[in-house]
Amino acid sequence: MAFPNTVFVFTLFSFLSLLPSTESVLTPDYYSKTCPKFHDVLQTVLSGKQLSNPTTAAATLRLFFHDCFVNGCDASLLIASTAFNKSELDADSNMSVAGDGFDLITRVKTALELECPGIVSCSDILAVSARDLVVMVGGPFYEVPLGRKDSRESSPVNVDKSLPKALTPMNDLLALFASKGFSVEEMVALVGAHTIGFSHCKEFANRIFHFSKTSEVDPAYNPTYAQGLRKLCHNYTKDPAMSAFNDVYTPGKFDNMYYKNLQRGLGLLSSDQAMVTDPRTKPFVDRYAANQTEFFDMFGRSMLKLSLFMVKENNDGDVRRRCDQFNTIQI
Q1: Please, is 171 exposed, middle or buried when counting C-beta atoms within 10 Å of its C-beta (0-12, 13-18, 19+)?
Q2: Of 275, 271, 266, the residue nearest 223 (C-alpha)
């Protein structure tokens, strides 16, 4: 399988050599015998979806983050609520997760069930889809081990406190990532995913409307940029769908422009812009802004690490027949 625009390849084996010995069964060729066309089927669906809906890459990447940060990479976020069970989707933090990601996973799962029924987990589909879509829009390739099982639980409890938000103070952001085993350097690299996608106006409205008693807009913004955002979001309270690209220059390309934008006062969210002023994060912002290869290197390493976070294996979970439903009714 070819991955164009690849700058960095970090193998699973070199990563696992840094970790303590485990009984993990995850391996890149997990489906080589049980579903040999896994990657071919997935690539066909991904390519068609991304071409028809260019926001799919960003939506799927965000879906992956929101799933993994809450109890690990186990596809628990994909579960739809029922009369018997409220799922992670009911949490406030997940209300704005775009539907393109969910639609993609449903399409891939349907195609794979026709090819090799009951074999490929939804959590593996999500992990590989996020990686492949990053590559499709210009980002780095990194190896994704396979063999995850899907969670048998999904609850909105504790979701909101497990996910970073636009207004989360830097101390809390660093503590949140640290609690999941990520260093400051890894956090700054992972947040670089904002180089693609968009944010709704309500997420940064506090910075462009009535920011303080002395300034209508956040002075950390580039003034021209701030005025453009004010015009764009002027009616956001009546139209919650109003949004702006996270990266104003190359919104559809995975590159290091996000970090360069932060240096120019073009960071859309408060939590973004704070990284270029906080002395703990600024050195990494500057490093990734100056060297895209270093950004891709650390992003790939950090994504691989995230993809292994609290995964379910063996009998700890299921291979769901449908990604939005448990195999057995939850009562």
Answers
A1: exposed
A2: 266
d(CA 296, CA 138): 10
Active site residue 210: no
Catalytic residue among 66, 200, 210, 234: 66
Rg of the chain on CA atoms, in Å: 20
pLDDT in tens, 25-52: 799 999 999 999 999 999 999 999 999 9
Domains of the chain (ranges; CATH) run 12-159+307-316 (1.10.520.10), 170-300 (1.10.420.10)
Write the DSSP assignment of 56-83 as a string of letters. HHHHHHHHHHHHHTTTSSSSGGGPPP-S
Are 174 and 52 in contact by the 8 Å Cβ rule? The answer is: no
Instruction: Give the tens place of pLDDT for each residue, 198-215.
Output: 999 999 999 999 999 999
Q: What would the two tokens of residue 190 be? A: 């992972």
